[in-house]
Protein 1
Amino acid sequence: MFNTSDIYTVSDFNRKPSEHIKRLSKNKRPEILTVNGKAAVIVQDAEAYEEMAKRADMMDSINNIKEALAQKGRPISEFFKEFEKKHGISSAEIQG
């Protein structure tokens, strides 16, 4: 997810914010900003963040469903087969 080319100092970000924003918007990869050589913050394009948050929410939902089904003793593979049939999509599409 991160490349060494995605690491910058906070000072560099402060000096050239528009350059960083253009790069973030173009490549959709987050940047690691460092202070005294240590990672301090992650900066990310808003659209890429929304996609990441959407996927995290989806995974939370799937995990909650998986836990609920496990308590009832229903195998997750059975649920996915039924879900795929009902909604006309595959689990590969769900998992991205």
Note: Residues 11 and 35 are 8 Å apart (CA to CA).
Protein 2
Amino acid sequence: MYRDKIEKLFRENLNIKKGERVLIFTDRERDYYEDLLNEFVDVAKSFTSDVRYMIYEPTKVHGHEPPVDLWRLAIGEEAVDVLIEEGFMEKIVNKDKYSAEDVLNIIKRFNISAPDVVVAFPYYSTTHTFFRKLLTDNFGARYASMPLFEPEMFLTSMDVDWYEVASLSRDISDILTEATWVHVKSDYGTDIEFSIEGRKAFADTGLFHNAGDFGNLPAGEGFIAPVETEAYGKLVIIYGPDRKLERPITFKFNRGGVEDIEGFEEYRYYIEDIFKKMPEARYIAEFGVGTNPKASRADNILEAEKIRGTIHIAIGDNHTFGGMNRVSFHTDYVVFEPTVVVGGKGWEKKLLEKGNLMKI
């Protein structure tokens, strides 16, 4: 049904080449994922004969490491067996402290035929995982992460001029890299300041043509990992990752973390339970600015955070893109029609005014 759209994704977004190794995977969170997986696999086999694929039980948390069987498919049985025997796999999956260098040394003992291209569309995101970082940073995989993906997106936020999106995303990431602080306000109550000093921003361009490129599809943002201990103020949330909340809730930040939550909404209790299980999940993790002109879905965070003129703030894990926090949780929250000012030593710039991107 979406064959031509998937072919375009492989050609335009991933620049797939004949003979490359491809890994495609999803989970069972949505009934239609298996059919979509089969369609991706069928199209991939028209480009190359080395296509690996898997569907697994949902992890139930964004940012959780994928199951061990997927690791076996990606880097081989022998390497994974040794990681298990030496106690590293359990630490990786639980995001405990471990030596990444020791893990890499183990993997390098084996002749790894890691994938060149990864298409990941489980409902629960693998973007901010060591699994993704290992494949992109150490094996040069081009990694398209598509959590919460819905096929209708092929007709909207995927149907854009990717070079235009890439250009704007890079311009914003350049500004964020230069800046040291950010102040975000909205008419419905968000008012938060945080530090981004010393952190490098990234552009989610939708074009994964070079070894190690990764990001979302649909894409479209410039993003950065704020300093985890330097966020103050309040973030008012009106949408969760996949629905509009019945009532807004407010995260109150102090010293980088959510100190208190206000508002009576079911999602509040879910987040409070996450904080009890994973205290490190309360810290600010990401700031991003949406750049996709055809993104519009407010009730799906994959697309919502890409809406041009919005910003999003995440809490939880950010150690895979320049931060210091390592935890099995990462979730973004969109601020609509924000006013955003960024600055550095001796300068400041209004980046957005009530959802309108200023001239860059």
Note: The chain has a mean pLDDT of 96.
Protein 3
Amino acid sequence: MGSPCPDEMNVDEIAVGMVARYPRTGTTGRVERIEEIDGIAFAGLDATDLFYRVDHLIPVSHVEKRRKSRKEGYKKVLEKEREAATSIEEEWRPTDELCEGGG
């Protein structure tokens, strides 16, 4: 293994409830549990339900802001899609009433 990144967590710095990022994959999540496996401390992140070595995690403080921002972005997209669907439905309604399907 290479030299540790200066931002990596010390095992004593990690706690359940804090937010951390695994830099190799960019996975970020809240620490749900900490377990020692074969003498190595691992943290279980809620984002993946997987364990990551504590000494490879980086503490993150701005994740909640990003999650809220992303959630608001999704809400805006969903609202625009609903408006478009309503608009299309209103445009087609008169043609549906004219066509009786007779032949």
Note: The longest strand covers residues 27-37.
